[in-house]
Amino acid sequence: MSDRIQEKLSILADAAKYDVSCSSSGSDRKNTNKGLGNASNGICHAYTEDGRCVSLLKILLTNHCIFDCAYCVSRKSNDIKRAAFTVQEVVDLTINFYRRNYIEGLFLSSGIFSNADYTMERLIRVAKTLRTEHKFNGYIHLKTIPGASEELMKEAGLWADRLSINVEMPTKKSLALLAPDKKQEDMIKPMQFLKEAIIANKEEKRLFKKAPKFAPAGQSTQMVIGATPETDLEILYLANGFYKKMNMRRVYYSGYVPISNDNRLPAIGTPVPMIRENRLYQADWLLRFYGFNVNEIVDKKNPLLDMDIDPKLGWALRNLNMFPVDINKADYQLIMRIPGIGIQSAKKICDARKFGAVTWEHLKKFGIAVNRARYFINSNKEFETKDLQPMQIKQFILQESQSKYRPNFSPQTKLF
Amino acid sequence: MNTVVYDGSYEGLLSAVFEIYEYKINDACIVKKDEVNGSLFGAVHTVETNEEKSKRVYKKLKDKLTPNALSQLFKTFLSEEKNIENVLYRYIAYTLSSRVSVENNFSHPDVLMLQQTSRKVHREKHRMEAFVRFQLSKDGLYYSLIQPDFNVLPLISNHFEKRYADQRWLIYDSRRKYGLYYDLHKVEEISMQFSENMNDKNALKAIIDEKEELYQRLWQQYFSSVNIAARKNMKLHIQHMPKRYWRWLTEKKG
């Protein structure tokens, strides 16, 4: 009996791991009923050997699937072991893992068996059982099955903290090529529905404090990167649209891990595009936290992110006319844009300068990335910049820095 | 230099600060009772921890500092770093001497030190909220042994009390030899004999719940199944989960 559970867990965790979302923050569910758990903090309880955070019990209810999406391990035509959990098994695993402080909650997705509504109903039943029978207030992230009815989505939002529908591919064309059973409208429509339901719930909560929560941690989505020929421009414009028009909390970028010999896809053994994925996340951060417009990061002339430097440095080098910045006078917004200075340091600078001039020595102690920032700052005579060209600055920075990706970009040929 | 000796508690430190002002002790150097070394020059003043005095200092600080800075002060104290008392004393003196709030003057070395040290302690607090692994005993107690870098039990108490309101739990710091025990009503600080081989497999057999081993095995299975081998990155793995914590983590014991 317990061996069978372990086997199911290994199959259904393995099949769920390509969904990269692990966030458990952004909700405000409190433990008011002297029940089990709360969802507010966002904690990574462990990290796997690939360095990714383990925050939620992320599993599929089943990996049986009627669809045949080329990029997915659970596709119908793939010859793999199939398994399915019962509702009770998922509930027991969640509660017992949670009580031992292994996890923040549950991330439940599923292959589509029978039809969308049938699958969605099962997912909802797990969440509802946890909330009602076990007074579970931990985090629940449910996948919305494309094509599920609006009534079911509404119910899902009542029990879950976050709902998500993966857009999967950055363009319709790629989706049609790789996921012939799916249409982009099938994903966009429910996103639109959820967006409106979340806004409506917020209004309702403003009027009636006791109105039930509806997906308090909002919705997120994910797209696969590097399986298809889209540029970063296409990817980031789509992401930006999700943030602006769908009120998405997060867009996740999942570097394609080759899992198939399908000739529509990169062959098995092709490296996972991890650097590109990392650059996309950096760009995503610039959009969400640094006040950048998407067209400042990529445009028609520069549709690809630099792989050897981060997008903020890339922007600065294209806009050297904005620099050097006087950190004792410039706006917080502009200080945040200086390469090597993050949000925390920018705040510190703006706080500290009220008491007196902030010097280069102070900056070093604040822990800013001196080797990058020095070319963009001009606060006192100690660090006047010469008239350097963007390429020169880039070379200087690359020479001095120890990027985790450095070996990939070393201009020197390796002899051994 | 005048040495001011206190008992090592936070109230004791605040009492010491009070007495430095009360007795107008110049050039004071605060030292923990059990860290006093024999070769002391100058006068020695020993402070009795006094609730009244510590409360008065605390109240004064509360008037002058934001809740955030007040909590930074306490977190920095819990770092137990060498000579931290004197950083705190100078920070308090600086705060009290200024009419305007100085807590954001990061160009001041003590203010920056406090901000940076409290951040390290806060990180350890967050780590313990993540890395505590409970094991269920036969009598229904969820217990966990930890050895945090800093003395963070006072900081995590509230988190665990709120989260695990419906289960009895015990978190024991085996380096500092005390723990937190929650009895379904309130959390208490306890000290007890909790030998380290309680974490040893054979010793455990006798006292753990019959399902405990199963869930540990399932968790280990889950942990290895969600890993993507094609993305292996041990450097990042270790950076997030430093090796010194592994002996307390179910998934790394395997």
SSE diagram, text form:
The complex is a heterodimer of chains A (416) and B (254).
Chain A: H1 2-14, E1 25-29, E2 39-41, E3 46-47, E4 53-54, E5 56-60, H2 87-99, E6 105-109, H3 116-133, E7 139-143, H4 150-159, E8 162-164, H5 172-178, H6 184-207, E9 219-225, H7 232-245, E10 250-255, H8 274-289, H9 294-297, H10 311-318, H11 332-335, H12 343-352, H13 360-366, H14 370-373, H15 390-400, H16 406-409
Helix pairs in contact in A: 2-3, 3-4, 4-6, 7-8
Chain B: E1 2-6, H1 10-22, E2 28-32, E3 44-46, H2 51-64, H3 67-78, H4 84-97, H5 109-131, E4 135-136, E5 141-146, H6 153-163, E6 168-173, E7 178-182, E8 187-190, H7 201-205, H8 212-225, H9 234-240, H10 250-253
Parallel strand pairs in B: 1-2, 1-3, 5-6
Antiparallel strand pairs in B: 4-5, 6-7, 7-8
Helix pairs in contact in B: 1-2, 3-5, 4-5, 5-6
Describe this structure in words.
The complex is a heterodimer of chains A (416) and B (254). Chain A is of the alpha/beta class and 416 residues long. The longest helix of chain A is centred in the middle third of the chain and has 24 residues, at 184-207. Chain A has 2 domains: 2-276, Aldolase class I (TIM Barrel), CATH 3.20.20.70; 311-409, no CATH class. In chain A, the strands form 3 sheets. Chain A has a 6-stranded parallel beta sheet with strand order 5-6-7-8-9-10. In chain A, strands 1-2 form a two-stranded antiparallel ribbon. Chain A contains 16 helices and 10 strands. With 254 residues, chain B is an alpha/beta fold. Chain B has 2 domains: 2-124, no CATH class; 132-253, no CATH class. Chain B is built from 10 helices and 8 strands. In chain B, the strands form 2 sheets. A 5-stranded mixed beta sheet of chain B has the order 4-5-6-7-8, covered by helices on one side. Chain B has a 3-stranded parallel beta sheet with strand order 2-1-3. In chain B, helix 4 packs across helix 5. Chain B is elongated, with a radius of gyration of 22 Å. Chain B starts with a strand and ends with a helix. In chain B, 33% of the residues are buried. The model of chain B has no long low-confidence stretch (mean pLDDT 93). At the A-B interface, helix 1, strand 3, strand 4, helix 2 and helix 12 of A face helix 5, strand 4, helix 6, helix 8 and helix 9 of B.
